[in-house]
Amino acid sequence: MIRKFVLFCSIKILIRDAMKKLLIVIIFAISIINAYGQEPPVTVKWYSIQEAEKLVMQSPRPLFIDTYTDWCGWCKKMDKETFTDPVISDILNTKFYPVKFDAEGIEKITVFGQTFINDGKAGKAHQLAVTLLNGKLSYPTVVFMTFETGGTVKVSPIPGFRPAVDMEVLLSYFADKAYSTQTLDNFAKNFKGKVQPIASME
Fold first, then answer.
1. Strand order of the sheet with strand 97-102?
2. Which residue has the higher pLDDT, 106 or 15?
3. Can you tell me the distance from the alpha carbon of 86 to that of 98, in angstroms, rounded to the nearest whole number?
4. How far, in Å, CA of 46 to CA of 93, rounded?
5. Which of 30, 59, 143, 158 is spaced 20 to 30 Å from 75 by Cα?
């Protein structure tokens, strides 16, 4: 009887260990399947302003210019929180030519028939930054460059950090050309977006 009991216990332990190992294998397999089954997140395809100019000539779209500096904490926050939102990145990639522009860069830039340099006359700011921001140098500032009938180029700088829920309003306002018929405030009142607001921690 003792031998049978010992044998029974040994078999029970072996079965229990085998079940544990099987459970670990199943969990690992499920995690692998989920990892491969998920679509990779949509990221913004950023261009230089010279690249965007060439694309505009081929297929016109508005330019969205994210004007930033390396030391700007709010710029980094907008990169991390706003531009990673899938709704925002999708709109930027399909409705605009999104441009990253270092407002304190030192390279010479020739775009739309004009050449801009960083000559130090505006502190560290590049001439192109001064032009795009109408001399009001604050970061981040997003600039919407739209191309109107008759070849007119309209530049609309909008300063300040924008969370994804607010950025969607701005992007839709310019992508839909609503600016030609109504103010941004009126457009925002009736706008229903896709971005999910971040829940309050309070």
1. 97-102, 63-68, 141-147, 153-159
2. 106
3. 15
4. 9
5. 59
Helices (H) and strands (E) counted in the chain, each on its own, are 7, 6
Residues 40, 116: contact at Cβ < 8 Å?
Answer: no
> What's the confidence (pLDDT) of residue 30?
55
Percent of the chain, pLDDT > 70? 77
**What is the radius of gyration, based on Cα positions, of the chain?**
27
List the one residue out of 125, 122, 155, 161 whose CA is nearest residue 140.
Answer: 161
Query: How far apart are the C-alpha atoms of 82 and 57, rounded to whole Å?
Result: 28
Contact 159, 138 (CB under 8 A): yes
DSSP for 13-43 reads: HHHHHHHHHHHHHHHHHHHHHHHHHSPPPP-
Distances (CA, A) of 85 to 42, 77, 112: 8, 12, 31
Helix, strand, coil content of the chain in percent (nearest 5): 45, 15, 40
Distance from the Cα of residue 15 to its chain's centroid: 52
- 135 token code pair: 């001399």
Q: Do residues 61 and 141 lie in contact, with contact meaning Cβ atoms separated by under 8 Å?
A: no
